[in-house]
Design goal:
This protein has 121 residues and is mainly α. It is built from four helices and no strands. It has one domain (2-120). α1 (2-46) packs across α2 and α2 (50-73) packs antiparallel against α3 (78-99). Keywords: Signal. Residues 1-21 form the signal peptide.
């Protein structure tokens, strides 16, 4: 009886963190899906090579992770939130420009402008 009780307690102790971790894994999976979709879209429009694609994907992951952190941290102060998100976007654009060739950067900027124009409608 003691062994059964001890085994069941051990299973509960080991299983509880796994149940709690499922929420983290599901949000992490959603983040990776968004990163992959954004990276593929950039790769399709700018014709990235494989090395550039991997660097852009890593940059997108860092950017989206930082964005989630900023949103959580500054949710109560909209002005500071906007300022931090603008700074993050500026850094992202700068880092992305460093990864792309000049022709790819022109295509990316044109695509970004047309996307903004469509979203503004």
């Amino acid at each position: 009886m003691k062994k059964i009780y001890l085994t069941s307690c051990l299973l509960l102790l080991l299983g509880a963190p796994l149940v709690m971790a499922q929420d983290v894994v599901s949000s992490d999976a959603a983040l990776h899906e968004r990163v992959t979709a954004l990276s593929r879209r950039i790769a399709e429009t700018t014709k990235l090579n494989e090395g550039q694609y991997l660097q852009v994907k890593r940059l997108n992951l860092v950017m989206m992770t930082e964005m989630e952190t900023i949103k959580a941290r500054f949710a109560s102060t909209p002005a500071k939130l906007d300022e931090q998100l603008a700074e993050l976007q500026s850094r992202y654009d700068w880092d992305l420009a460093a990864l792309l060739l000049p022709k790819q950067l022109m295509v990316y900027n044109a695509s970004k402008i047309s996307t903004l124009a469509v979203n503004a409608r």
